[in-house]
Design brief:
By secondary structure, the chain is α/β, with parallel strands linked by helices. The chain has a single domain (8-127, 159-212), classed as Rossmann fold (3-Layer(aba) Sandwich). The protein has 9 helices and 8 strands. It has an 8-stranded mixed β-sheet with strand order 3-2-1-4-5-8-6-7, sandwiched between helices. α6 (107-117) links the parallel β4 and β5 (118-126). It is globular, with a radius of gyration of 17 Å. It starts with 7 loop residues before the first helix and ends with a strand.
Length: 216
């Protein structure tokens, strides 16, 4: 009789936030990786212990850094808006920026730095073009609160409201190659974004992109 008990790795993966599970699936075993805005190190901890990743993290909050270090992770305190300039070119195979781009003061410069520091970048962010956000603004007239955007307008860390369409356009402007792109709704269903993201931009509550360096 076959044992149907899930493996420890499968169990740990299931506890990750939905976009972090998808990110983890894109990261190859044993690679060098920098997790920017890593929080308490939830993703980094999984990748280091389950995929043998040589992982590092940078996090702005002291509480997040302390929590990550407690779990034995290599995480330093830093601000991605200013401190990424100090990292050398091609220092990592992968750079991850999850649910943080919209909180950056200069997201364009941060995006360029991701693909200077790493050979590939994985970026996820809440989609401000999601249909529930549009309907709330149209019918109610105030800033919407959703699972992906759980803040009031006066205490949100999100200072650059970005849609999937906006992000695709910025990648084109910078010559960045989009290797893979998906949109996730609140039921965790996946929709491929593609080169014409109309439906994904409407139906996706959050988006995830695998990027590679601009062609020279």
């Amino acid at each position: 009789m076959l044992d149907s008990t899930p493996s420890p790795a499968t169990t740990r993966r299931s506890t990750l936030r939905v976009d972090l599970r998808r990110i983890a699936d894109m990261v190859p075993e044993g690679c060098r990786l920098l997790d920017i805005g890593c929080g308490d190190g939830e993703l980094l901890d999984y990748l280091v212990h389950e995929k043998g990743v040589d992982g590092r993290g940078i996090e702005i909050s002291v509480a997040g850094v302390n929590a990550a270090i407690t779990h034995g992770l290599s995480v330093i305190q830093g601000d991605a808006d200013t401190d990424l300039d100090d990292y050398p070119d091609n220092a990592f195979d992968f750079v991850v920026l999850s649910q943080t781009l919209q909180a950056m003061r200069n997201p364009r410069a941060v995006l360029e730095n991701l693909l200077r520091i790493g050979n590939k970048a994985i970026v996820s962010f809440p989609n401000f073009g999601y249909w529930r956000v549009r309907i709330r603004l149209l019918l109610v007239g105030d800033m919407p609160i959703t699972k992906a955007l759980p803040y009031q307008w006066y205490d949100t860390p999100n200072i650059h409201q970005c849609t999937i369409k906006d992000f695709v356009r910025l990648c084109k402007e910078l010559g960045i190659t989009i290797e893979r792109s998906i949109a996730l709704n609140r039921r965790e269903q996946v929709r491929r974004i593609g080169s014409t993201p109309f439906f994904a931009n409407l139906m996706g509550e959050q988006a995830l992109f695998l990027l590679s360096k601009p062609m020279r």
